[in-house]
Every structure is written in structure tokens, then in C-alpha cells.
Amino acid sequence: MLPASDILEPVYLDATLTTENTESAEIDWKGFPSVFSVASVVKISGAACVEVVFSRGVYLPELDLWLDSLRRRDMGVISHAHSDHTARHHRAVLTPGTRLLLSDYLPDRAGHVTLEFHEPLETERYTMTLYPAGHCLGSAQALVVSKATGERVLYTGDFKARASCINEPLEPAPCDTLVMEATYGRPEYTFPPEEQVLATACRTLEGWLSKGERPVVLGWRLGKSQEILHHLLSQGFEVAVEESAHRIAQRYQQAGVRFPGAFVPFDAHSPWREGQVLIAPPGAKTRNLLGKTKGLRFMELTGWALNGRRPWGRRGDADLPFSDHADFNELVEYVARVKPKQVYTVNGFPELAAHLRSLGYPAVHLNAKGQPDDAGTQMRMM
Ligand SMILES: [Zn+2]
């Protein structure tokens, strides 16, 4: 955990913002349905902008639109297939890549709307278009244009700004109102160039293998594992992939992603082959899978691995900073690229909004009640 002295207090512009934190049962705000246990409702006064509600998902009341709701809705956009962005909506709006990844999770109803990138969805109140977010297969930003006012609202979901070997590249979409993730929204989360990190990772793995050790590279099973897989195969490593991450890699292949080499699944019955690197998700399941295997060395590739400080105290033999999210500078640069009139940040640190205000953007962090200030996100990934 970061020391308390390192945590900046969120600063709100009292003169121009009104903020309500409301408990569910009493909520009666513009006829808003009283279904929320907690809601953060923030309106930037004086600006002709939509209201934005953050309550286990993002809600735009004027447009009656849910984005990444964690509760089942009649209709909801799913920006990507990580489990901290999904629910079994009756009518999900999502890309073909996300649909493919969620094919075992979403009920197979006719009502789902599969939208290609750049293909507009027309409704009575808005036009919605999805743009690549560069975060994992199928990950999308949603640009929603109100038919009543013409206002353009961009919801980023999780995004990665750096070019990825397996994802569609992030595509900035100019907007009036930006609702963006703030996962690495503190200045200390500035990542080194990926080539440097990956070169260090490969040298370290080669060193371990040369001593007859058994390297395990830990990465979340959707997105990170497949990026790591692509890099290790391109460097000539022999790679096995834990079953669930392997199944997802096969979905990537179904979607047309080509990996530069062969790879095999690894389960409890797989013998460990000499010279092999295993890619597996962090957590108890992998620990159980490996049991008492001798000579294991663990490497974790994660954006939290800066300066040896980790929010949940897990440490591998080598922790290297590598992420499928934008770092602090890339978050700030993205705001400059899409030129919003107002910004809301969600899912991460409030310091990003404070920094954006210092740059002249009306920006506020929507913090879910009960979410610790130091939460970051990514705690419940699939
Ligand atoms: Zn994600």
C-alpha cells in the first residue's frame, strides 16, 4: 500500500460543480429509477452537458444508456470482456470480438447487438459508434451523440495507448464530454518503453532456463497473457499456456489474430518440458495447478510493478512494469487529443482529475462509495 502521505486528497471545484452522493432508497432525481445502492451524481454547472452517474457502471440518464454496468440491464454497452465491465444484459451492445470472448457467458439471445467498429447504431435518442480501445480483443470506446443536443459523449472503457501486437490500435474520437478510466491516474505510474521491459524479461527468462529452472510468467488470462504469448513466441521461446488463457488465445486465433509460433495448453496432467516457459494467470488456481513442482521462478508483468510498490503485496522473483492500460502520461495525452469540454474519470485514482483541472480542463473524479481511495482497479478480472 502507498503511505497515506503519498495519497493526494481529491480537490473539487466547489464554485462550478454540484456533487450529490445519494443512498438508493431515497434517490428521486429527475425521475431516476431507484435501483441503485449508491450513486455518484455530478453535474458541471453552467455547461450544457449530459449528467453522468457512476454506480457499478456509467449511466447517462438523459439518454437512458448504461455503459459497462455490473448489474443486468435491459440494454447495456459492454466495452470489453473483462469481468469488471460485464453483466448478463438482456440486450448487450458489443463488438464481434467481445461477443466471441463472452460466448459462454452471455445468454444467446437474439436481442444482442453486435456492432463493428465505426458502424453506427441509431436509436430515438442517440447515435452510437464504437471505436477501438487497444486494450484487448474487441475492446471498444463508445461515442454517443445526442440527437436532442448534438453533444458528443465518449466513454473510453479501459484503453491502451501503446501499439500492441495483437489488438486493434486505440483510435481517438473527438468529443464534448469525456468519461475515461483512471486506472493508472497517478504520476508515479509512468511506464518505461515496452521494448526495454520485454528485453529485460527475455534476458531474465533465458538466465533462469540456462540454470535448469522453470519459469512461470504471470499475466491476466484475457489480454495480458496473449500479449505475452505473442512476444515470447516471437523471441523463439517454447511456451505452454494455462488452460483458461489457452482457450482465450484460441478465441483470438478464431478472430484472425496470428501468433508467431506454436504453443500448447498446460494443465495439472501436463509434464513440464525442459526449456519451457509457462504463461498463467496470477492467483490460487495457478498455485494449486503447480503444486509442489520444483525449481519454479515467477515473473509478473503488471503496471503496478513500479518501484517495487504493489497495492496487494504479491511479489514474484521478478516484477516488471508492463500493462494493457494507458499510463499516467498517456491518459493525460489522450484528453488533449480528443479535446473535451468536460471530463469525468472513473475506476482509479482521483489525482488524474486534479491534474487535468490544473491544466484547465473541467474534470471531476466519480468515486463509487465504498471504493477505497487507493483501490485502482483490475481486482476482479476474468
Ligand atoms: Zn479491462
Task: Describe this protein's structure.
With 382 residues, this protein is of the alpha/beta class. It has two domains: 4-189 and 325-365, Ribonuclease Z/Hydroxyacylglutathione hydrolase-like (Metallo-beta-lactamase, Chain A, 4-Layer Sandwich), CATH 3.60.15; 194-320, 3-Layer(aba) Sandwich (Rossmann fold), CATH 3.40.50. It has helices at 96-101, 194-210, 224-234, 243-254, 284-290, 328-338, 351-358; strands at residues 17-23, 38-44, 52-54, 58-60, 65-67, 75-77, 91-94, 113-114, 121-122, 126-132, 140-146, 152-155, 177-181, 214-218, 238-242, 264-266, 276-280, 296-301, 318-320, 342-346, 363-365. The longest helix has 17 residues, at 194-210. The chain starts with 16 loop residues before the first strand and ends in a 17-residue tail after the last strand. Bound molecules: zinc ion (ZN). Zinc ion is lined by residues 80, 82, 135, 158.
CATH H-level superfamily title of the largest domain: Ribonuclease Z/Hydroxyacylglutathione hydrolase-like
SSE string, helix = H, strand = E?
A: EEEEEEEHEEEEEEHEHEHEEHEEHEHE
Helix content: 10-25%
Estimate nothing, just give the exact number of structural domains.
Answer: 2
Enter the CATH topology name of the largest domain: Metallo-beta-lactamase, Chain A
Rounded to the nearest angstrom, the distance between the terminal CA atoms is 23 Å
**What is the mean pLDDT?**
83
Number of helices: 7
Q: For the record, what CATH class of the largest domain applies?
A: Alpha Beta
SS-based structural class?
alpha/beta
- What best-fitting shape do the alpha-carbon axes yield? globular
Query: What's the architecture of the largest domain in CATH terms?
Result: 4-Layer Sandwich
What is the multimeric organization of the chains shown? single chain
Low-confidence stretches: 1-41, 370-382
Number of strands: 21
